[in-house]
Structure to design on (459 residues):
């Protein structure tokens, strides 16, 4: 029994461990982007706008089709009953009683007729009708074209919203990786600081170094440990910020991959600008905004033209429902109508709509111009920033090599008693600063490439 219980306990622990292991997934940059695009409220709102625009497009397309309706009526009328008497004359001819009236004689005889009026009368009818606007000044055509341009506008806006989120995820992801690298640098600094403190203390004990060297090394060691704490806190904060951005719990047990494929841009600024003008979703959305405003203006002008519509209907009516349901031709009737409406005066409504449409077109043109200029400016800034970041990365790499060489040289001199503790500590601080600058330059370059991709409309 005890052995069975131990086996059950061991199996349960193994299952819990496997579940925890499966749940602790390491997320790559692409995973983070995918999660953010699924959960970000701005992206969801932009996609919903596309759905709304699609509904408006269907509505505009429906204006080309006839409207069809079916109807059925049943009426019952109640009136008071009363007796009505009508008087008149009746004509009788010919008479066959020739004994009293000669043959071929017409007789006019007074007649009185009494009958009841009122009561209940019923009427039933079934019908169907169709109406089609043949011409309305072209408004249905331009409204459809405008609705199609609006849908494309919101599709490009959704793409632009997604690109903003993608760039934000890259920013936070690179910040996390940078914080991770800087924490490693701080850990190495703490190790060196501890070694320098121990070395200074041992030299002091044998009388080859003053007490001040020990104190200075101890202070530097303490500062290194404070730097490590700050680096660890920064890493936790950047990790929480990244989790928050992609829609995860900020306290969730999740890890992010530290390796990623670095992207390079080797083209020219002119090539980047050409791609951006063709692919940037914000610029493409502004272009569709101009098209929509132009169609709106044309639709407003269409209100000055006449409208032609036709309609047809067929009805069956009978006092008895059972007869109406037979759809007999004797109970049926056709109705065909054609309407031509010529607008004459609409209280300046058409003029107001045309003016408003012109203003909307001017605004759309201005928005397109400045969006195009903004894309060009963003590409220029990002491209130049890549050039600067590339040079800064090279310089930072050389600074690290120089600082490492200087650190090694000063360390040897201090071990031989040819350098002071201040020189050694200064070399250590310079090395940490150079290493941190190298990490900054590295991820600044990655971010500059990401910024150029965003400006070009590339994910």
């Amino acid at each position: 029994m005890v052995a069975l219980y131990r086996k059950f306990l061991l199996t349960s622990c193994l299952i819990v461990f496997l579940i925890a292991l499966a749940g602790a997934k390491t997320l790559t940059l692409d995973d983070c982007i995918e999660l953010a695009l699924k959960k970000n409220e701005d992206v969801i709102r932009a996609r919903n706008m596309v759905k709304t625009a699609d509904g408006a497009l269907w509505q505009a397309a429906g204006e080309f089709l006839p409207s069809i309706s079916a109807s059925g009526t049943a009426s019952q009328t109640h009136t008071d009953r009363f007796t009505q008497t009508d008087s008149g004359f009746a004509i009788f001819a010919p008479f066959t009683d020739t004994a009293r009236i000669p043959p071929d004689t017409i007789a006019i005889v007074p007649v009185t007729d009494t009958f009841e009026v009122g009561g209940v009368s019923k009427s039933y009818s079934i019908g169907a009708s169709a109406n089609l606007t043949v011409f309305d000044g072209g408004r249905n055509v331009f409204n459809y074209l405008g609705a199609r341009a609006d849908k494309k506008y919101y599709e490009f806006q959704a793409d632009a919203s997604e690109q903003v989120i993608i760039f934000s995820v890259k920013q936070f992801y690179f910040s996390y990786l940078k914080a991770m690298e800087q924490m490693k640098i701080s850990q190495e600094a703490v190790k060196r600081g501890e070694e320098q403190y121990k070395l200074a203390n041992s030299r002091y004990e044998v009388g080859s170094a003053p007490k001040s060297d020990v104190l200075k090394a101890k202070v530097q060691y303490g500062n290194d440990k404070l730097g490590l704490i700050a680096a660890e806190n920064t890493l936790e904060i950047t990790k929480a910020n990244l989790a928050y951005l992609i829609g995860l719990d900020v306290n969730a047990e999740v890890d992010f991959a530290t390796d990623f494929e670095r992207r390079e841009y080797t083209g020219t600024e002119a090539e980047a600008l050409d791609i951006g003008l063709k692919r940037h979703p914000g610029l493409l959305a502004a272009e569709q905004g101009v098209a929509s405003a132009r169609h709106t203006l044309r639709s407003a002008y269409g209100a000055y033209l006449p409208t032609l519509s036709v309609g047809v209907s067929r009805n069956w009516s009978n006092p008895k429902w059972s007869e109406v349901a037979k759809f007999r031709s004797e109970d049926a009737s056709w109705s065909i109508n054609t309407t031509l409406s010529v607008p004459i005066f609409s209280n300046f409504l058409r003029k107001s709509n045309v003016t408003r449409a012109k203003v909307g077109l001017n605004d759309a043109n201005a928005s397109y111009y400045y969006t195009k200029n903004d894309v060009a400016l963003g590409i220029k800034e990002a491209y130049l920033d890549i050039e600067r970041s590339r040079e800064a990365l090279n310089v930072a790499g050389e600074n690290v090599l120089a600082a490492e060489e200087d650190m090694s040289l000063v360390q040897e001199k201090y071990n031989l008693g040819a350098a002071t503790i201040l020189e050694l500590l200064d070399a250590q601080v310079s090395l940490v600063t150079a290493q941190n600058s190298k990490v900054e330059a590295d991820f600044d370059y990655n971010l500059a490439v990401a910024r150029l991709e965003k400006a070009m409309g590339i994910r």
Notes: The chain has one domain: 25-75+135-310+345-456. Residues 349-416 form the longest helix (68 residues).
